[in-house]
Amino acid sequence: MKICVRVLLLWLLGIAGCTVPVTRPAPDAGATAGLPETEGWRRVQFRIARPQGETPRWYIGTLIGGEIVTPVYQRNKQDIQLWRIHRRAGDDAHGHVLSFIFYTTPQAAQRIYHDISSNAVLADLRAKGLVTWVGYDDLTRNDSPLIEDTSDPIWPAAIRKNWPALIMGASRMWLGLVAELAVNHADEQDLEHRYELVEQDINRLWAEQGQHAVLHHLTALFAYQPLLIRY
Predict the structure, then answer these.
(1) Of 33, 54, 89, 123, most Cβ neighbours within 10 A?
(2) What pLDDT band is residue 36 in, cutting at 50, 70 and 90?
(3) DSSP category for residue 148
């Protein structure tokens, strides 16, 4: 039963946010005139270099979470109703990607885009070829205005509407772990190596504590009912 729950949770955490957005350059934060005012889902995708035949450098995504997403979120959280982190590392054309997905107005998204595009750490990662591409959703369109619009369409409506709250909590926990564990390695001057150590710490915590801290309590919340697993 524990194995089945683990498989399902990992599947749930991995299925959303896989599509590549329509991309536009990140414009100036003040250039909001003429944008629609309706809230909707927006995303920024960071494509991480993965040389052929090599395993994903997950720690680069952790670095992006700690040094780019966290400060941007802290500065703009009053404008974000819901948000999440999505991570993938497939062998397809899209490759290794971390996405910051958030529900807000185009005007707030414009400011977030500008914050991200002007981040010095991101500029350094791009200069080193570690981040090969950054994509921003087109703010002149609103293709996902409903809370449920970026949930998996195969789910029942009640799940689609409420799943974003679950994954936001999990994403907030992950970013919190990144920030807290990075403090333990503050003396490490090499930023990449610092987050490689943070990634190792998180992996160890997940292996040792994830079953009880996450999976057990989720199962308890849903009254220890059995799960239908699709393979």
Answers:
(1) 89
(2) confident
(3) G
